Amino acid sequence: MKIAFLTPEYPHPKTGGSGGIGTSIKNLAMGLLAEGCSVRVLVYAQKEEGVFYDNGICIQQIRNIKFKGLSWYLTRKKLENNINTLYDNKEIDLVEAPDWTGITSFISPKKCPVVIRLNGSDTYFCHLDQRPVKWVNRFHEKRALKNADGLLSVSQFTADTTNEVFHLDKKFSIIPNCIDMDVFNNNNINCNSNNNVNENCHNNGTVNGNNINNKNTILYFGSLIRKKGLLELPFIFNVVVAKKPEAKLILIGKDVPDIISGHSSTWQMMQGLFSPAALLNVTYLGAVPYDEIKNQISRATVCVFPTFAEALPVSWIEAMALEKSIVASNIGWAPEVIDDGVNGFLVHPKDHLHYAAKIIHLMEDSDLQKEFGSAAKKKVSEKFSIQKVALQSLIFYQSLIQ
């Protein structure tokens, strides 16, 4: 089978920065390749046209058309023509696109089936954030969903919420995000790194400078943004430090402007929320290479994800695969990833005292850390491995084509 993915992002130096959608597509693409499929990724909004290969995946870069007032329509028609040509030339059998901004809203290939996989639309995230959505995004996202030949969602919560916010009654097949467990495996982690936490940090001297390879390290990795609970994390950590002064907090990820307050830096906003004692124990490393993130996860004692808005977070699965004990948000999608009290703890991000208590509990109980870590890895192997998810996706594609 020949599968194409239409996306605004893909994790490769030639295609620019990428978030969760691009990472999810690459993971799935590698799994489909292993199943004998041909995979092409159509990356739009590129600076130049081009085709290259990434570990067997054909990456096609596509420039948007610039024409005042009609760029959105002409770009969609260009993508439609590309899809039709590839289908007519028997280079693809099916194309999958994300729900974000509804890129397929005016794309109607002659014969090629179009699948949309929910990873969270702008309308979905605005609903969870309780803020207004741009009407044009809502329009395109709803139209794309109504016109799709097949519908997938990475979580049941995201499917149900999407139907609710768009006033639809669509049936979604639930297939989660996945990771390569051969990559996220403690046997492949370099735990002997001599990197000091303040070598690349962006904290203006407000950190302790100790090596992070210790039993008192709390790690958050992901974008520094309000919707992921980063404005709650300081209050949680303040409670932890008041009871465990030796606790350290490591932050990894891109600093994102705050869309609600208009502040240019979430990290700067966070610094004002930490107590003086807690701030001394915080290290912000900024964005780091992917391989280094794995090292940081492996050396952490507890990973925390106090998020308010997700579809099905890959970061949680990565930490689980590396057998980390986790305290995460208990909102919506969370029980589809973590079983509370079995392979992690789930707590509402605004319940600072309870959240901090769970972190402290894990930091002080090494046996529970191991118990949660072992159960977490087992859960990932059974539900979120590339092999499992690729096979589920392939069965869905085959049923749609037939």
Automatic annotation (TrEMBL):
The Glycosyl transferase family domain is annotated at: 212-378
Which keywords does this chain's UniProt record carry? Transferase
Q: Which SUPFAM superfamilies match?
A: UDP-Glycosyltransferase/glycogen phosphorylase
Ranges of residues in domain Glycosyltransferase subfamily 4-like N-terminal: 19-182
Domain of life where this protein originates = Bacteria
| One annotated GO molecular function | glycosyltransferase activity
> In the record, which residues are listed under signal peptide?
none
Pfam families assigned to the protein according to its UniProt record, in alphabetical order = Glyco_transf_4, Glycos_transf_1
Q: Is the keyword Transferase in the record? A: yes
Per its record, how is this protein called by name?
Glycosyltransferase family 1 protein
**Gene source species:** Flavobacterium psychrolimnae
